Amino acid sequence: MKHRGPRTPDRASGAAGGTTSAQARNATADRAALPVTALRGVGAALAGRLARLNVASIGDLLFLLPLRYEDRTHTTALGALLPGTRAAVEGEISLSEVAFRGRRQLLCRISDGSGFLTLRFFHFSASQQQSLGRGTWLRCYGEVRRSRLGLEMVHPEYRRIAAGGSATTAHGPATDTASPAADAPEALTPIYPLTEGVPQGRLRALVQQALQELARSGLPDLLPAAALPAQAPPLMQALRYLHQPPREADLTELAAGRHPAQRRLAFEELLAHQITLRLRKRALKSDPAWALTDGARMQTRFLASLPFSLTRAQARALGEVDRDLAAAVPMVRLIQGDVGCGKTVIAAAAAARAAGSGLQAVLMAPTELLAEQHWRNFRDWLQPLGETVALLSGSLPARTRRSAMEALAAGEVRVAVGTHALFQEGIEFQRLALVIVDEQHRFGVQQRLQLTRKGQQAGRLPHQLIMTATPIPRTLAMTAYADLDVSVIDELPPGRTPVQTVVAPESRRAEVVQRIVQACRDGRQAYWVCPLIDESDEVLAAAAQDTASALAAALPGLTVGLVHGRMPAAAKEQAMLGFKGGRIQVLVATTVIEVGVDVPNATLMVIENAERMGLAQLHQLRGRVGRGAAVSTCVLLYRAPLSPLARERLRVIRESSDGFEIARRDLALRGPGELLGTRQTGLAQLRVADLVRDADLLPGVQHTAEVLLARAPDTIAALAARWIGAGEQYGRIG
Ligand code: ADP
Ligand code: MG
């Protein structure tokens, strides 16, 4: 059954008799906006599969861009074929037979005078078999493999050609009906992202059909040429080029994504994302918030009670936070700062301002461990000022938790710390004015939105303060976090000694154990982080348990503690407190200790299987030591052999201790997707643009976004619809 928009047939026929150019433009827009089912041979089932590729309309097909290209325009002599390569070949069928080698199959041998090649088909129709008789000439494309019969191609794409000459009939394998145009030897062959049930050839044919449909009218260029990167072709020209690059196209340039046509589209895509994020921020800021002016005194008292004064960078960040909090517009501010730069104290100062204004603040952490640690800090800092701090942890006895929740709902308690998971359940506040999220790389945009919505009371949105220890370079931050204001803490508190980082093979484990003995003899403490295996929590917990037992046996006289994700909270807290209080000397842990844990007397960190961890994670883990005045060491144990990527990562982490620098290197090594986290931003789904490769486009993107936001609402809507799609507008607010 076909689904058509109810209005479209009218509009389309109106266009056919088209008179004015405005009408023609409308018809164009409508043509592109028609559902794919308006194309020949596309029914509801295929449309459903295409939807998985974010293709709903005919126009969307043009924005489904090839992942890569194959040059099928040059043929390789059969005698020169190499196994493991993909090649286009031509030859005459010298033998064609149906064989039974375990399975019924059609074998054709082709030759061109220089050599032979076997074509093997497991699925074939009778007519196909008939058309592949002796003496027929074929042009084939496929992967060359070695077999017992010499070199072969299994299910190559092929067509019949005149003896030794050019193509006559297009003929794909039964599952891959290639379109003649796409396979025309004068163009490179595009390879599209696939989804189940839509073969490559079918997709190619559909894109060709869409190109033809829109050939006359094209798609509107939404951007003025002046805004675009240099040498950018018009939109339709760029799209046509990328779907059918001419045979002389520079494949290396295309593969690198540096062709002007690609940059044209990348610019527009980045712009669409930028605009969407900024609109989100604008929408958020259009609601009122509490102006936290009364709390300034409580904040001053809090700062005066600290045993240290803020660093310049901390003071600057807090100044930015304070300015936001004093306004009746919701703050949405991200604090970026390296591990150990002192973000918690800024969070507490903001909370003090909220409490001092008679309103409520909540801090959320990704793990219970961290929530408990923050709670202890907040309690120690704010209790002397007369503020009770509630802990909301999933593992607390139900009664304790309930009474904390009641106190918050009644407004008797103004500051709460808890895990994000818990917050998602029904916690009520009396007047919530500030939501603080720690280590936001663990939270997604959607989750943050949920929180904001939850905090909305009497039409007011809470201020949001987000703290991340995964700093990213400035231009990238302005792109990825365009929905946030960003403060940077680029300075560590004084008196820190850089951590010495040592990389050692697993075989030197015994030596490492001796280092622990030495450190503990000096009154210090050590962390031992257990292998990160891609396994369940249970397996991880068991591995940590084994390591703890082994270390306890190897370290008589020392107390070895254990912390992992599956332990009851009370046991975890006991271990953490024991470690913090110095009763436990060696803490064996899974990567649950990755974020935030603060024990300044710990000076040795051993990380097992460090080769499996990402740079950001290694840097976070290492940040657990080097928090006091004593020299600290981080030993990265690896299991040989190292992959080139792992080797490079370990080199970077050994050479640098600057989180911003490490983030830059991480970006170069892995790309932004992993660094930012796939859930975190829609940027993970970029189709053409690449945040690292196209970084030079970002300033222009930002500028153009500002211009369009100020004066072109229609363009903005069209851009968002074209690139972002209806389903993933980064969520909506309220
Ligand atoms: P992070 O930014 O990684 O969350 P924390 O907030 O845990 O860092 O701070 C790390 C340590 O530095 C804590 O023990 C904290 O009390 C201390 N600290 C924070 N600010 C300062 C400062 N200005 N001077 C000295 N120590 C500080
Ligand atoms: Mg922290």
Spatial strand sequence of the major β-sheet: 6-7-4-3-2-5-8-9
Molecular shape: globular
Helix segment count? 27
First-last Cα distance: 37 Å
How many strands, which pairing sense, and closed or not: the largest β-sheet? 8 strands, mixed
Q: Cα-atom Rg, whole angstroms?
A: 31 Å
User: Uncertain runs with pLDDT below 50, 5 residues or more?
Assistant: 1-20, 167-184, 677-681, 726-734
CATH fold name of the largest domain: Rossmann fold
Overall domain count: 4
Helix content: 25-40%
The CATH H-level homologous superfamily of the largest domain: P-loop containing nucleotide triphosphate hydrolases
Structural commentary:
The chain is an alpha/beta fold. It folds into 4 domains: 109 residues, no CATH class; 110 residues, OB fold (Dihydrolipoamide Acetyltransferase, E2P) (Beta Barrel); 192 residues, 3-Layer(aba) Sandwich (Rossmann fold); 157 residues, Rossmann fold (3-Layer(aba) Sandwich), CATH 3.40.50.300. Helix content is 40%, strand content 18%. It is built from 27 helices and 23 strands. The site of magnesium ion has 5 residues, from loops.
